[in-house]
Amino acid sequence: MKTEAPPQLQKPAKMGARAWAMLLVLCGAIFIEGIDVAMMSVSLPAIREDLGLSTATLSWVMSGYVLGYAGFILLGGRAADLLGRRRMFLFWLVVFLAFSGLGGLASEGWMLILARFITGIAAAFMAPAGLSIITTSIPEGEPRNKAVLIYAGTAAAGFSLGLVVGGLLSAVHWRWVFFAPVFLAAILLVAAIKLIPKDSPAEKQKQKFDIAGALSITAGLVALVYGVVRLEHPSEGLALTIAAFVAAFVLIAVFVVIERRATSPLVRLGILRSAALARANIAAMLFGGAFFGFQFLMVLYLQELRGWSPLETSLALLLTALDAILAPTLTPKLVERFGNSAVILGGMVLAAGSYALFLRVGMDWTYAAMLPTVVGLGTAFALAYGPLTIAATEGIAEEEQGLASGLFYTSWQVGSALGLSAVTAISVAVIGQDTSAQAGLDGFRAALIVPLAAAIIAGIVTAFGLRRRGAVPEPEVVLAG
User: Fold this and answer.
1) Are 125 and 82 in contact (CB under 8 A)?
2) Please, what sign has the CA dihedral across residues 314, 458, 76, 141?
3) pLDDT tens profile 45-70
4) Average predicted confidence (pLDDT) for the chain
5) How far is CA 346 from CA 335, 339, 458, in A?
6) If you placed Cys at 176, which of 169, 307, 332, 445 could pair as Cys (CB 3.0 to 4.6 Å)?
7) DSSP state of 304
């Protein structure tokens, strides 16, 4: 009688050509989302000059996207589970395409902010749908881990390469920053229709959609991010900022009460009891806040203090895109050899060291002096982001993959918003009314404490996962804890 080989001796499943093609399409979508954010940051001066926008209005061009993305992403993740991952991905890809194009046609500030807000909402539904398509279509274990690492590496590359692409497109005209994603999204849409498999949404299993929970958590997250974003503009008044945080707290508390009583909750609160999932999301929030806070500071340092052009700034940060090469090549081997937690911790330590190297930055620093930090951060991103994505989704039931993805991206986006607001608030507080270059440098140095502290705390959180695992080697890497 033929016996089946033990699971640890079985040959791992491999991805077929169609699965690779599907992964390529989904990577293309997450890449567009990444470059969309990064391109915007280097094109803001040109937008201000062309449309005559005030500083407050200009800042909301960026913040509007973050508000839509972070506010709706948890709803987007659960909608993928309940309404169909393929359906959600395709529909919101069309919305993303349409409103990116409308943003390029905007002639007033409010039109641009509205287009960015809705584009952010579209991304909030697309991102968790795309990730959950991967985690439910590709077998768990080595094939899925590799696919997720490639997907995460592509997203990270978008964040980095978007700065260069944005600089190049802004040199032609800032409107191409909006139009370029339209062409890419249209190509991906055609391919996605053919390649993304149809799923069986939970609605066919007579599951109800938790409308009250969806409304309360979405409103709560929007209020929370709105309050965080307002911290960047202390001159606009403190009362409304406090009111936003109070409203967020009340709405999130209402959401918890609703979910405890709901027969088909939007978020099964029991999923949050997973220590590994909690560690992954906390670490992602801190790491994302550190990275985007530093990137924002770096752009200001190079352009406003050193007088570099947007293109020069973009090229200076190009090597942070090392993750695009390392994430699909080096990171899977390290994860297989040392485990998720160890690789994530290595990324956090490297990130903290890179930020620490920049604390003594001066006005006369050469690019060679900046290079260790730039290369270090690109490598740290490759080590941390993909394994964090695996840790946040692996071991979760298939019917909750969209929820787990939504939780991860919510943590990432809220962390990014917190990081940006914290570095801005500290920098503004230190500079005060002093417009000298030295004051600007002092504000920059003080704000650098935020990404450094966030990376250190994220490393400590990850280290708890390593400690719990002990020294016993595991046959397969599953969670970051």
Assistant:
1) no
2) positive
3) 778 788 887 766 776 787 788 778 87
4) 83
5) 11, 11, 11
6) 169
7) I
Residues 86-101, buried b or exposed e (16+ Cβ, 10 A)? bbbbbbbbebbbbbbb
Phi then psi for residue 432, to 5 deg, are 60, -130
Structure token pair of residue 62: 């960026």
Q: What pLDDT, on the 0 to 100 scale, is given for residue 98? A: 94
pTM score = 0.80
Query: Residue 102: how many CB atoms within 10 A of its CB?
Result: 17
CA atoms of 414 and 251, how far apart (whole Å) = 16
| Separation of alpha carbons 109 and 117, rounded Å | 12
- Taking alpha carbons only, the member of 327, 214, 320 closest to residue 262 is 214
| Nearest alpha carbon to residue 271 among 145, 409, 402 | 402
100 within 8 A of 178, measured Cβ to Cβ: yes
User: 3-state DSSP call for residue 138?
Assistant: coil
Percent of the chain with pLDDT over 90: 29
pLDDT, tens digit, 9 for 90 and up, residues 385-426: 889 988 888 778 877 888 888 888 888 888 888 888 888 888
CA angle 213, 219, 220 (to 5 degrees): 85
For range 312-324, the mean pLDDT = 81
Q: What is the 3-state secondary structure of the chain?
A: CCCCCCHHHCCCCCCCHHHHHHHHHHHHHHHHHHHHHHHHHHHHHHHHHHHCCCHHHHHHHHHHHHHHHHHHHHHHHHHHHHHCHHHHHHHHHHHHHHHHHHHHCCCCHHHHHHHHHHHHHHHHHHHHHHHHHHHHHCCCCHHHHHHHHHHHHHHHHHHHHHHHHHHHHHHHCCCHHHHHHHHHHHHHHHHHHHHCCCCCCHHHHCCCCCHHHHHHHHHHHHHHHHHHHHCCCHHHCCHHHHHHHHHHHHHHHHHHHHHHHCCCCCCCHHHHHCHHHHHHHHHHHHHHHHHHHHHHHHHHHHHHHCCCCHHHHHHHCHHHHHHHHHHHHHHHHHHHHHCHHHHHHHHHHHHHHHHHHCCCCCCCCCHHHHHHHHHHHHHHHHHHHHHHHHHHHCCCCHHHHHHHHHHHHHHHHHHHHHHHHHHHHHHHHHHCCCCCHHHHHHHHHHHCHHHHHHHHHHHHHHHHHHHHHCCCCCCCCCCCC
* Cα-based distances in Å from 295 to 368, 370, 374: 18, 13, 10
